[in-house]
TrEMBL record:
Organism per entry: freshwater metagenome
Single Gene Ontology BP annotation: cell wall organization
Name under which the protein is recorded: Unannotated protein
Xref: InterPro entries: ATP-grasp, ATP_grasp_subdomain_1, D-Ala_lig_Van_CS, D_ala_D_ala, Dala_Dala_lig_C, Dala_Dala_lig_N, PreATP-grasp_dom_sf
Cofactor(s), names only, from the UniProt record: Mg(2+); Mn(2+)
UniProt KW ATP-binding keyword: yes
Swiss-Prot/TrEMBL keywords: ATP-binding, Cell shape, Cell wall biogenesis/degradation, Cytoplasm, Ligase, Magnesium, Manganese, Metal-binding, Nucleotide-binding, Peptidoglycan synthesis
Ranges of residues in domain ATP-grasp: 110-319
GO cellular component labels: cytosol
Pfam family, any one: Dala_Dala_lig_C
Molecular function in Gene Ontology: ATP binding; D-alanine-D-alanine ligase activity; metal ion binding
Protein family per UniProt: Belongs to the D-alanine--D-alanine ligase family.
Length: 333
């Protein structure tokens, strides 16, 4: 099988994507397949072996059988590249246009799971336009969440642009920082308990959940010591405790909520589900449809702890992509 591994991209998560792409390429090769690497630079240009690609709808992509877009953040994980691959007529790993778009937008995702009565952290959505029109009302709604709170760009990952706010005086500056990255911002109440993550693998007909891992922050660059960019990506910044130190009943609830959210959001292939667990209370925070994908990233490590090694994980994802493509070809849209 010939696999296009696509990495890089225009988002602020470009560097993380490059690392993930190299790991995926090695994993796909270890699974016995030929890899054709495609790099997307920060301006959005696609290239292969140093030559810029000319993409033509309906004409495929470098004659590959399937694409593995290891792209994080906007212009890659948000349904845009997924739509492009649909137009190119190429099977691809991961969620489709709708699932990708819903899950990258923290506001849209939380509104969706709220409709399905899935417990989550209280939040307020703020747009740059609404804040400019009536900042007093927006600030009052946010302050009603209590302190501390977390101010986040709605459509970024890897903790980019997130600010922890301990008192109301710091709120305008935190919003200004978040608006630098996205005109849509989400403000979340701080959750008690521990951060627990699990990995989901499958499609709409069958999905399974890995063992759960507990995030322990060892080094953070942010006040309050939360799970920021440095903790996630600096060696020694965090520890993953497997299995997570939660009760069997909390674990069962966490696994059930991960599968429900995966299904309701229309996900396929993979997702990492992030939770806050406080005793028996389990709150879903988000689904990440293309999490960090190095062999030491949380998603892959949790599957390894579940008995699924990295090359086999890549193989499973490729087969899910091909099966979805085959099933979709039966429909006359």
């Amino acid at each position: 099988m010939i696999v296009a591994v696509i990495s890089g991209g225009r988002s602020s998560e470009h560097d993380v994507s490059v690392l993930s792409g190299e790991a995926v390429a090695a994993g796909v090769e270890a699974a016995g397949h030929e890899v054709r690497r495609i790099e997307i630079d920060r301006e959005g240009h696609w290239s292969h072996n140093g030559s810029e690609l000319q993409l033509r709808p309906g004409h495929g992509l470098l004659d590959v059988d399937v694409a593995f877009p290891v792209l994080h953040g906007p212009f890659g994980e948000d349904g845009t590249v997924q739509g492009l691959l649909e137009l190119l007529d190429v099977a691809y790993v991961g969620s489709g246009v709708l699932g990708s778009a819903v899950c990258i937008d923290k506001v849209a995702f939380k509104q969706l799971i709220g409709q399905h009565a899935i417990a989550q952290v209280p939040f307020v959505a703020v747009t740059k336009a609404a804040f400019a029109a009536d900042s007093t009302a927006q600030l009052a709604a946010i302050e009603a969440l209590g302190m501390p709170i977390f101010v986040k760009p709605a459509r970024l990952g890897s903790s980019v642009g997130i600010v922890r706010v301990a008192d109301a005086a710091g709120l305008p500056q935190a919003l200004e920082e978040a608006f630098r990255y996205d005109p849509r911002v989400i403000v979340e109440a701080a959750a008690e308990g521990i951060e627990v993550e699990c990995s989901v693998l499958g499609d709409e007909s069958h999905a399974e959940v890995s063992v759960a891992g507990e995030i322990v922050v060892l080094r953070s660059a942010s006040p309050g010591g939360w799970y920021d960019y440095e903790a996630k990506y600096t060696p020694g910044g965090m520890d993953l405790v497997v299995p997570a130190r939660i009760s069997e009943s909390a674990l069962a609830k966490l696994r059930e909520l991960a599968l429900r959210a995966f299904e309701q959001a229309g996900c396929s292939g993979l997702a990492r589900a992030d939770f806050f667990v406080n005793g028996e209370q389990v709150l879903l925070n988000e689904l990440n449809t293309m999490p960090g994908f190095t062999s030491t990233s949380v998603y892959a490590r949790l599957w390894q702890e579940s008995g699924l090694e990295y090359p086999e994980l890549c193989e499973r994802l490729l087969q899910i992509a091909l099966r979805r493509r085959s099933e979709q070809s039966d429909y006359r849209f």
